[in-house]
Write a structure and sequence with these properties.
The structure holds two protein chains of two kinds. By secondary structure, chain A is an all-beta fold. In chain A, 0% of the residues lie in helices and 52% in strands. Chain A has no helices and twelve strands. In chain A, strand 10 and strand 11 form a beta hairpin. By secondary structure, chain B is an all-beta fold. Helices cover 0% and strands 47% of the residues of chain B. Chain B has no helices and eleven strands. The radius of gyration of chain B is 13 Å and the shape is globular. The chains are: A mainly beta, B mainly beta. At the A-B interface, strand 6, strand 10 and strand 11 of A face strand 4, strand 5 and strand 9 of B.
Amino acid sequence: AQTVTQSQPEMSVQEAETVTLSCTYDTSESDYYLFWYKQPPSRQMILVIRQEAYKQQNATENRFSVNFQKAAKSFSLKISDSQLGDAAMYFCAYRNSNSGYALNFGKGTSLLVTP
Amino acid sequence: GAGVSQTPSNKVTEKGKYVELRCDPISGHTALYWYRQSLGQGPEFLIYFQGTGAADDSGLPNDRFFAVRPEGSVSTLKIQRTERGDSAVYLCASSLMGGGRSRNEQFFGPGTRLTVL
């Protein structure tokens, strides 16, 4: 079974600054996907960024980027130029590529953005 | 609308009652998923449909929980003899196809918050 661990229950960042959210995972598979989802108070999970394990290059989406360390099984999310609208719960998730469909989520990190 | 919708948004019921939660996936999505999110936790997988059939229901906690998708579109999650421990947000997601190496992004609905008194 795969497990996803987010060790930071809460993080805080000032507007326009940079923050990094941590995620580690455990798997015996070599081919998988990793995701970061954002969940605002509206409860709707929104995909922020995705990383395929077979790709060495770290994924980026505008102000969001990841640091994917496959050997260390680490997948952190960096948010640059933080905005008030970034405040939300952030969940790291794993999915097996070959036979998997269900997402395995971590417990989440609550991000507070201060003016 | 173009997104996944779920009804009701909130449901309050009494212990022992029966409830039904509905999910309308994005049109054309063949795969549908149900997750349960307890307070302070990440979502946990319950069941996955590919078309009309439940391809994997290994996440359903016990036989009080059941889900259907009779026409391969709308799905209903049914909970019998509700217990206080069933209180959670129930999230539904859909994707164009299920799993594999294709991108198959899961799009989530806003969830139903179930409170069992």
